[in-house]
Amino acid sequence: MPRYIVFNKPYGVPSQFSDPAGEFGLTLRDYVPVPEVYPVGRLDRDSEGLLLLTGDGLLQHRLTDPRFAHPKTYLAQVEGVPRDSDLEPLRRGVVIQGRRTLPAGARLLAEEPPLWPRTPPIRFRKAIPTAWLEIVLREGRNRQVRRMSAAVGLPTLRLVRWALGPLTVAGLDPGAWRELDARDLLELKKLASTPATGAGGSRGK
After folding, report:
1. Rounded distance, CA 77 to CA 154, Å?
2. Which residues, 6+ apart, have CB-to-CB distance to 51 below 8 Å?
């Protein structure tokens, strides 16, 4: 039977179990010693948060194939404090790497979300205030959130994938994981069963 795991990936850890060149130090294997599970999509080394691991090939395909695009929620700490109107380009779609993104959900959070401390912490600059955004994507182009925020003048300092559809990393410390319960799995498979059109591929953020 396939296993289904939600992992809270720490900053600096690659989305892979092996390190043949010895360049990473720690990999997923150091945190999730479970055989025959593989990452669904990617999360870049300098991003944190939810990474789904499973050996269910059909579910992996449905969650990463462009025809089956599903909402992924990110919390992004950015330089500057935008007005709501500054986020409108993200909601319409912005051009990055020569192609326009799909419309995204984007809102300014009223206060800093209750996240774990990042290790190492971001570098603060007293003269430049920061703000937190919630961004919801239905595509997954390479480093998309960072490129989108930069395109509207809001460079990303810290990026956390908080949710994939109904799944979140609430209650998981960095490096911790849990297996999906029956209800989580039912909701995830329901999400994966509905095709979506016009989405991009699933790659790292």
Report:
1. 9
2. 6, 7, 8, 9, 15, 28, 39, 40, 41, 43, 161
44 is catalytic: yes
Q: What are the pLDDT digits (tens) for 29-82? A: 999 999 999 999 889 999 999 999 999 999 998 888 777 778 999 999 999 999
pTM to 2 decimal places: 0.92
Task: Give the span between the Cα atoms of 193 and 109, in whole angstroms.
Answer: 31
Kindly write down the DSSP assignment for every residue of 145-163, as one continuous string: HHHHHHHTT--EEEEEEEE
Q: What is the largest CA-CA distance in the chain?
A: 54
Q: What's the rounded Cα separation, in Å, for the pair 100 and 202? A: 16
201 assigned to some structural domain: no
Domain count, the chain: 1
Residue 87 DSSP class: G
* Domain assignment of residue 92, yes or no: yes
> Which listed residue (19, 30, 44, 65) is catalytic?
44
Domain that holds residue 15: 4-192
In a domain, 39, yes or no: yes
For residue 58, give the CATH number of its domain: 3.30.2350.10
